[in-house]
Recover the amino acids of this structure.
């Protein structure tokens, strides 16, 4: 009964949204106001009765919100990859007589959702499997995701956020510049889900399909994965398309999926097979890399034979020079391809490549062109002895048995672009309006040669305002951003210099250790630097080498003349939080973002970490009664949970 009501809700949502779009955007009337109101009232009543409310329901008013950053969060248990095979017979053998669930392996962005008391409480990306990004506000705009469900316990599930091929084509059709079009639905989805402004996410028509139920306290699923899927559907979730298979039916089921992949509108790069018996699957445990309850099936790659025309040597901004194979165009997975990265010298030599060789190419995961095999193996390629960008000598370096080609010129233009990109980035000098492409244009025109030149771009007003993409307003905004960046802090400057291995945290530690005295920081030797907390010999050596280079020092002197450095007044009396460790989560009232509160705590001698442990002094969370993971952990460990106001009052901090 619940399932049929949920299906009716989905129908009403689609029907009412279609009618609204026709009326407001297309000046067409699909139904009368009376009919619309009648269906709307039915929808509202069903939502009230079932507890299921979809994110795109006309009864929901979406609150758009922009954030400064996506906070990171560690998963309670690692999200492991699955072992893979391309052989259907291996899947049948894997079953060992057990029934299993066969489903699409969707190709989007994996998301972990947590619901508490019937409401969406948290959404986190898979990230690297250990730590993901919190995208809860963005998830609330997924077109088919329930923001409220009937089940009132804590529900944790995993699924895939995807953008369909048809929606992908519509979005690309609106972009006139061919080079600006998105490459594939997966990349578009990944970027859409991880936007800082969820209004952008909402426009991209992202959908969510559940594929695993992780936890639902107090619900008996009778040891069945199929029952879990059924439960999720009753809560309003769309689940990944699946079917139960046995040793007798799995090969025909795989064939059925294979025949439909060509026309399936949701991106998929294979299938997933999971034991239907939950307890049996869990009893098998896991390897170091894979769980044993599931296995992935990858479609056999489409191979095409072609002729290698040339190797293009592409210099990166790190000095690495990558070989790229250029070959006669071929059709692969529905698109024309003519180039593929060879990645490094070791792979290049292993393929024994030569111009004119016959090679086979494929798309890894049906996306990335790769060379599969060299049929001719003439092995007549010469490794360039000079950089294609600056013409200076190259050198082959070997790291972990992999050989790669590097430009030896520290002044190479490719490297310069990278250094300027870091310099203007948010955690460094934070200069708006200077994208990597714009910086490259300014460098090519000779506007900037070193960091200090950025603060004199007003000399080139006439040229800049005539450049494509720039006008008077863009120029004025750029100059305003540069002037604002003059007032900065020493840690930002140290990080902006791009010294090897010096990140934001290390820059802060160094400045604090040397009492924000630039002269002492310039003259510090390796031994002194190694004594700084968090700075080992490798970082110390890189920092000292940078500061001992006369050219670097002269450029640093010229840069410092352009800046007004805000020096924090640090005294023993002000270090009221020394030795204390805090965790900050949730939205804040008195600070623009969590980084601002973190900087204040660090300024007063405290430390801010990302996870609650037994060493945590207190968790700062304005929603101290929520059932979030951090709150639960704090309660388990007896760590106090303070609201922002309670924290400020307890530690005597005025803002």
């Amino acid at each position: 009964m619940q399932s049929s009501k949920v299906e009716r809700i989905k129908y009403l949502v689609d029907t009412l949204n279609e009618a609204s779009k026709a009326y407001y955007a297309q000046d067409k009337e699909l139904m009368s106001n009376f009919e619309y109101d009648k269906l709307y009232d039915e929808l509202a009543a069903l939502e009230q009765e079932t507890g299921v409310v979809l994110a795109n329901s006309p009864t929901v008013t979406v609150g758009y919100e922009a954030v400064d950053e996506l906070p990171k969060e560690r998963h309670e248990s690692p999200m492991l990859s699955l072992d893979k095979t391309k052989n259907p017979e291996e899947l049948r053998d894997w079953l060992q007589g057990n029934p299993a669930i066969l489903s699409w392996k969707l190709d989007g962005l994996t998301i972990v959702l947590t619901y508490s008391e019937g409401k969406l409480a948290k959404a986190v990306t898979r990230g690297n499997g250990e730590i993901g990004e919190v995208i809860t506000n963005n998830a609330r705009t997924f077109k088919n995701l329930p923001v409220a469900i009937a089940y009132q316990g804590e529900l944790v599930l995993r699924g895939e956020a995807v953008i369909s091929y048809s929606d992908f084509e519509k979005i690309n059709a609106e972009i006139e510049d061919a080079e600006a079009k998105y490459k594939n639905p997966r990349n578009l989805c990944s970027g859409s889900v991880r936007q800082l402004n969820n209004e952008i996410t909402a426009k991209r028509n992202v959908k969510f399909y559940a594929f695993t139920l992780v936890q639902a306290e107090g619900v008996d699923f009778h040891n069945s994965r199929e029952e879990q899927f059924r439960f999720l559907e009753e809560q309003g979730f769309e689940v990944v398309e699946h079917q139960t298979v046995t040793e007798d039916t799995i090969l025909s089921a795989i064939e059925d999926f294979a025949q439909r992949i060509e026309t399936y509108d949701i991106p998929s790069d294979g299938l997933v097979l999971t034991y239907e018996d939950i307890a049996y699957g869990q009893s098998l445990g896991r390897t170091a890399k894979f769980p044993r309850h599931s296995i992935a099936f990858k479609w056999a790659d489409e191979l095409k034979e072609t002729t290698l025309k040339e190797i293009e040597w592409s210099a990166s901004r790190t000095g690495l020079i990558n070989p790229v194979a250029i070959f006669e165009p071929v059709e692969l997975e529905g698109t024309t391809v003519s180039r593929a990265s060879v990645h490094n010298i070791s792979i290049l030599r292993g393929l024994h490549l030569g111009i004119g060789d016959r090679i086979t190419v494929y798309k890894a995961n049906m996306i990335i062109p790769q060379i599969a095999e060299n049929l001719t193996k003439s092995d007549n390629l010469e490794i360039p002895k000079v950089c294609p960008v600056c013409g200076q000598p190259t050198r082959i370096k070997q790291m972990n048995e992999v050989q790669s080609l590097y430009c030896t010129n520290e002044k190479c233009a490719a490297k310069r672009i990278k250094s300027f990109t870091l310099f203007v980035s948010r955690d460094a000098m934070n200069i708006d309006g200077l994208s990597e492409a714009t910086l490259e244009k300014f460098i090519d025109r000779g506007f900037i040669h070193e960091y200090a030149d950025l603060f004199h771009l007003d000399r080139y007003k006439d040229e800049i305002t005539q450049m494509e993409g720039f006008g008077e307003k863009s120029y004025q905004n750029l100059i305003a951003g540069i002037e604002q960046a003059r007032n900065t802090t020493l840690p930002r400057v140290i990080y902006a210099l791009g010294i090897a291995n010096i990140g934001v945290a290390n820059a802060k530690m160094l400045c604090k250790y040397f009492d924000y005295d630039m002269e002492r920081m310039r003259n510090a030797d390796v031994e002194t630097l190694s004594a700084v907390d968090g700075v080992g010999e490798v970082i110390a050596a890189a920092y000292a080498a940078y500061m001992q280079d006369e050219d670097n020092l002269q450029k640093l002197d010229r840069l410092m003349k352009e800046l007004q450095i805000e020096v924090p007044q640090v005294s023993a009396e002000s270090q009221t939080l020394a030795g204390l460790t805090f965790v900050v989560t949730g939205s804040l009232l008195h600070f623009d973002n969590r980084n601002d509160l973190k900087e204040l705590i660090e300024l007063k001698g405290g430390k801010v970490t990302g996870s609650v442990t037994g060493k945590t002094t207190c968790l700062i969370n304005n929603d101290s009664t929520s059932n979030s993971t951090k709150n639960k952990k704090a309660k388990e460990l007896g760590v106090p949970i303070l609201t922002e106001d309670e924290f400020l009052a307890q530690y005597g901090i005025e803002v």
In short: DSSP finds 24 helices and 26 strands in the chain. The CA atoms of residues 104 and 271 lie 5 Å apart.
